[in-house]
Amino acid sequence: MKNSEKKIRAAKFSIVTALSLAVMKFTVGILTGSMAVLSSAIDSMLDILMSGVNFLAIRQAEQPADENHPYGHGKFETMATLIQSLVIGGSGVWILIESVRRLAAGAAPTGLGSGIAVLAFSVICSWAISRYLLKVAKETDSSALAADSLHFSMDVYTNLALLAGVTAMAFFRLYWIDAVLSMLVACYILYEALKLIRLSLREVLDEQLPEPLRKQVEFIIKQHCGKKYNFHNLRTRKAGSHKLIDFHLTVCKKLTVAEAHQLTDKLEHEIANAVQGADITIHVEPCTFDNCNEEDCGGCRR
Amino acid sequence: MKNSEKKIRAAKFSIVTALSLAVMKFTVGILTGSMAVLSSAIDSMLDILMSGVNFLAIRQAEQPADENHPYGHGKFETMATLIQSLVIGGSGVWILIESVRRLAAGAAPTGLGSGIAVLAFSVICSWAISRYLLKVAKETDSSALAADSLHFSMDVYTNLALLAGVTAMAFFRLYWIDAVLSMLVACYILYEALKLIRLSLREVLDEQLPEPLRKQVEFIIKQHCGKKYNFHNLRTRKAGSHKLIDFHLTVCKKLTVAEAHQLTDKLEHEIANAVQGADITIHVEPCTFDNCNEEDCGGCRR
Fold first, then answer.
1. Which candidate from B72, B236, B256 shows the least CB-CB separation from A70?
2. CB-based contact B236 A286, cutoff 8 Å
């Protein structure tokens, strides 16, 4: 299956999961009248919205380059990641404030009653989809799916903290456990959200690709290069799952355009094979020797 | 003066203006005890913050490309514009809600007392700096300065609406004028903020340059091209004041690399002269005729 199909399928799964959880929670919440389950259902509604935005962004990001977006639509995914991470970070801050408030007020979680099974089931579903999304995110190098995965993890950890708090209250009468656990969860969420915000900001600001990827590209180019003159001005950036790369390649000035192009085609092909989603532009420059032969100028040879 | 210096100077002017206005308003506000002037002073404090962010972003955007940001730092300006437009848009929504509330409650602006001269003076200063910023923004194609200019305009129009409201109340006892004027101002602010948000989102999403600029680039390339094969894959995008351009150029395959490079250098030079802040990468391709002479393949000739 192509990466773009994988990403879109994962984004669809994420919406369907959020939708099923919301429907289930609403049904159980209304039947049992549990406020905890109902408020969790409202949470899931927001998840549907976020997963929906993600789905649209990923579908858009996978559209091929067109006249209006000649470098492809990868940055749509970047923006979706940025927005989703900001919302997740905001939720983290809110949970933090709320748990400090509860700790100060000495408030304990109210009984979950019949809703406890529903929340436990929802935790399992969220955990499974979160793992799956993270796996696809890593396979396809998709920051938007990573953000979606974090979003589901948030539900897992907050609900686990809530369940642990209720248990601790029932058995040990430790009223502060829930608030303290929530705080820890909030700190973890904030930490992960900030990582994602940083990641998407890097893409927005056209920062270069990570060191290992650049080294790989450099290695491939160098394999074809002579000693003295080879390549310079290697520029790289990322847009969603696309990696945009361009550089200047110095070859013997006596080569014909056809010969030089054969070489650049080969390089483009090899880099594209090694770097998933690479888009390569090579600018050829002639060596500057007055009177060179290929051995002297050391430019790239076939 | 170089464009980057112009931009940085304009951003500095903007901070100094906001700072002077804030100091003046605080002094007069404390001396006269006018709440209207004091709240306007707090407004100016926020202006200092926004202008400060803008100044830092513009200074960063004018840094030359380095290893970490190989395509330059133009996108820093884009992000500053996006953030500033979002804040301005938010303020617009707030003014709109506030004026609807005031209209519903029938509340009229309270007397400005001795502060009226201060506000009038501040309106004139804000208007002058806003014009100046807009002029430099157009000259240097800087979206961040355009956002800064809109920010000062907002103060001009809201303060004018406030002054008009007070006057209308004093002379004609029309208590609703102030709220209605504020609403109109809010709508205008929102309209301008949305335009700027759209503009900066286009840059973030790597949308192509506007039609006239592309036509100009195409015109320059075509002047040097033959009839059958010339150029394709023209890709353009914008990052702050930088315009990033790349395209494929088909030339006769029998040309040497040195000859082809002379041509691309010339093209790059001419495009850079015509398009302010252009960064051009040309990928040369050979014509595909089996047996061509320059006349046949029509590739670019010197």
1. B236
2. no
What are the strands, taking DSSP E only, across chain A? 231-239, 242-251, 278-286
**A3-204 and A211-297 agree in CATH topology:** no
Q: Residue A114 burial (CB < 10 Å; 0-12/13-18/19+)?
A: middle
Nearest Cα to Cα of residue A249 among A299, A191, A296, A192: A299
Q: Which chain A residue has the Cα nearest residue B290?
A: A258
| ipTM, interface predicted TM-score of the complex | 0.82
**Number of C-beta neighbours around residue B106 at 10 A:** 9
Task: State the DSSP string of B204-234.
Answer: HTTPPPPHHHHHHHHHHHHHT--SS--EEEE
Cβ contact, residue pair B73, A256, below 8 Å? no
Homologous superfamily, domain B211-297: Cation efflux protein, cytoplasmic domain (3.30.70.1350)
Superfamily of structural domain B3-204: Cation efflux protein transmembrane domain (1.20.1510.10)
Residue B300 DSSP label? B
Its pTM stands at 0.85
Q: Give the type of residue at B244.
A: L
Q: CB-based contact (8 Å) between A202 and chain B? A: no
Q: Is some CB atom of chain B closer than 8 A to the CB atom of A235? A: yes
Domain positions in chain B are 3-204, 211-297
Q: Is A153 on the interface with B (CB under 8 A)?
A: no
CA atoms of B186 and B10, how far apart (whole Å): 26
Smallest Cα–Cα separation from A41: which of A53, A56, A58, A26? A26
Residue-wise pLDDT for B118-167, tens only, equals: 888 889 999 999 999 999 999 998 999 999 999 999 889 888 888 888 77
